[in-house]
Amino acid sequence: MKDIARQRMSIKISTMDLLNNQIKMEAHASASYLAMASWCEQNAFPSSADFFYHQASEEREHMMKIFKFVADCGGNPISPSVENLNHDFSTLEEVFETALDQEITVTKSIYNIQSAARKEQDFLVENFLQWFITEQLEEEKTFRDILDLFEVMGREGIALKFIDERIKPE
Amino acid sequence: MTTVYSSKFYTFYQSDADRCYFIDFGQKLVKLSFCQLLALRQRIQTISIEDHFDSDLNKHGFEILMLCNKEHLFLLNTFEILDLMELLGNALGVLGIANQIGLTSS
User: Fold this and answer.
1) How far is A110 from chain B (nearest CA, A)?
2) Domain count, chain A
3) Best of B5, B34, B106 to disrupt the A interface by mutation (most A CBs within 10 Å)?
4) pLDDT score of A33 more than 50
5) Sign (positive/negative) of CA torsion B29, B35, B37, B40?
6) CA neighbor of B37 nearest in space, from B91, B78, B73
7) Which residues in chain A (73-112) have CB-CB distances under 8 A to chain B?
8) Residue B103 pLDDT more than 50?
9) What residues make up the domain containing A99?
10) Would B57 be classed as within a structural domain?
11) Nearest chain A residue (CA) to B18
12) Residue A27's CATH number
């Protein structure tokens, strides 16, 4: 029998499923950053709000990159639905800590796909994900640096205003 | 056409000449391209079989399946859906292009 699947698609179906999960995760991250931007707007942190608007659009770009890759490989990219978004935060620091945790979850997920792709000898996917691995390092570093500001400048009063002013979209 | 897998109600074939697949639904033979097969797999994976046993979530225990860009419409009961899941999971497994799909939604 001919291998019709291989003729039609350049990646494995199991890897395609993982990439579709990643599309969903990036969409969730994008929407989650919008929720954080909303909180920052409502609590008078305009620079942080701008930062999160920018992050939201960056995560959407990541999602689109994976979406296009799956389509270009002949796969079936699934437009994701986004549910269970958290809009409630207690402090600005909590917002950034949640954002860092979210980035760590995304990094772990990308490592998981990379590991599966390597196991399946899906070298195309492995090569494609290299860009995301470097990108995730930058994302995590950005949030770690911002969280360091709270250690240095404090967590109350005017310190929060100064921290907000230092936060700029990358 | 080569028979890939037969379940209780359905049979899955591959046609090397047409570079496509066929599913014999009993009353109808449906031709599927690879993309249409992926779409059917996706649709089947989103079905919640648990809902069939909850009269509030799926009152009559039926699923409407539209295949191949809405060219075909099927109304399948719980047994037929379970059988179709088995068919697809095993056929894709035999073809070596995917592991068996789960019976519950992902």
Assistant:
1) 19
2) 1
3) B34
4) yes
5) negative
6) B91
7) 74-76, 78
8) no
9) 12-77+90-166
10) yes
11) A4
12) 1.20.1260.10
Judging contacts by C-beta atoms under 8 Å, the chain B residues touching residue A18 are none
Confirm or deny that A58 is annotated as ligand binding: no
**Number of domains present in the structure of chain B:** 1
B20 contacts A76? CB cut-off 8 A: no
The stretch A5-28 carries a mean pLDDT of 91
b/e per residue B45-69 (b: at least 16 CB within 10 A): bebebebbeeeeebeebebebebee
User: What pTM did the predictor assign?
Assistant: 0.87
Expressed as residue numbers, the domain containing B68 is 2-95
Contacts of B34 in chain A (CB under 8 A): 4-5, 7-9, 74
pLDDT at B105 over 50: no
pLDDT (tens digit, 9 = 90+) per residue, B40-92? 999 998 898 888 888 888 878 888 998 888 889 999 999 999 999 999 999 99
A3 part of a folded domain: no
Burial of A119 (0-12, 13-18, 19+ CB in 10 A): exposed
